[in-house]
Amino acid sequence: QVQFEESGGGLVQAGGSLRLSCTASGNIFSIDVMGWYRQVPGKQREPVALIDSGGRTTYADSVKGRFTASRDNAKNTVHLQMDSLKPEDTAVYSCHILYLRSGATIQRAAWGQGTQVTVSS
């Protein structure tokens, strides 16, 4: 019952920047953690940047210093500013949330459909 609107992916040259945005809607009472995972063929999906409801962030070591996550709790929106992009950042980036449905006491996880980020050398 959760809908995602993801945007911002595209093709950029190494050293360039992209800004991903994700807005979640539907049967959501509250969102605990919101962020982005990425996946390339043949590899497991890995967390890239996560941000909790208090604004605390966690980044993969590979993107620290280059990516910045931000969140607007009132809009159920998360952004990922990606700077100094590298070819190894190429992947499908998917929005992810841990949330509570109205009246529920156990968190659920939901995923967006993903947006392609391609970085050329």
Provide a brief overview of the structure.
The protein is 0% helix and 59% strand.
Structural class: mainly beta
Quaternary organisation: single chain
* Helix and strand element order: EEEEEEEEEEE
Strand content: over 45%
The helix tally amounts to 0
Q: Which word captures the global form? A: elongated
Largest sheet: 7 strands, mixed
Structure description:
The protein is built from no helices and 11 strands. By secondary structure, it is mainly β.
What are the key terms here?
mainly beta, 11 strands
Helices and strands, with pairings:
Elements: E1 2-7, E2 10-13, E3 18-26, E4 30-39, E5 46-52, E6 57-59, E7 67-72, E8 77-82, E9 91-100, E10 108-111, E11 115-120
Parallel strand pairs: 2-11
Antiparallel strand pairs: 1-3, 3-8, 4-5, 4-9, 5-6, 7-8, 9-10, 9-11
